[in-house]
Design brief:
Layout (H helix, E strand, L loop, with lengths): L3 E7 L3 H11 L5 E6 L6 H7 L3 E4 L5 H11 L4 E5 L3 E3 L1 H12 L6 E10 L2 E3 L7 E8 L3 E3 L9 E3 L3 E14 L2 H22 L7 H16 L6 H30 L1
Amino acid sequence: MTSLSVVYVAQDCAAALARSLDSVAGLAAEILVVDGGSRDNTVMLAQTRGARVVEHPWAGFGAQRQFAVAQAQNDWILMLDSDELLRPEGRAAIERLLEAPVEHAAYYLRRCSYFHGRRIRHGDWAKDQVLRLFDRRQGRYDPTQQVHESWQCSGSLGTVAALALDHYSYGSYAQLLQKMQKYAELNAEKVYARGRPVPAHAPLSHAMAAFMRGYLLRLGFLDGVDGAAIAWTNALGAFMKYAMARERQQAERR
């Protein structure tokens, strides 16, 4: 059987991390938590559940994940977020995969998201999959990526057939807005760094496209008020991403 490390990057997430660690208990040869400077009891909680904890100042999402991958004791990594739970069928599928000769260098995991305790089945959160199970010898995280970082694999890719993860990223509309603001600021930095002028119409056109895609084309309206909230928040995030990048460009010209 291929030895596996379950790896987390964490900060101030004790309550969510406890549930996630419980979902992977006994799965891997190692559970590693890289803590970015928590002020709650994340570190103590992880240690009491048998995880090895490495403390490392927060360096941005891409850099922190790559640091965590390098600290692991095994080459095969299951990278999880603290707000994700490994489903029993996902666990069984991963165990079967690693018991046999492994065919691919990395695997996508299918993931379903929840909001207000209810599964979101439509819109931008539906049909979600993330590249989280991989051989660290065949790829890396880009340390310059501050948001939407993903494993850059140099080998072949597969998909774990079972629905593997439950994602509980937001508990309220307020949290949804707070995360949107954070991501909009980070994404605005990416747009600004490209060096291409942001036209005046870009914020509104991108916002309208995001709303139409999530609410209408991907049937977000079928998830009711929560579906509308997700679509409107994604649209606002797209608007602010380009508006803030344009604002910075204009300030620089002045």
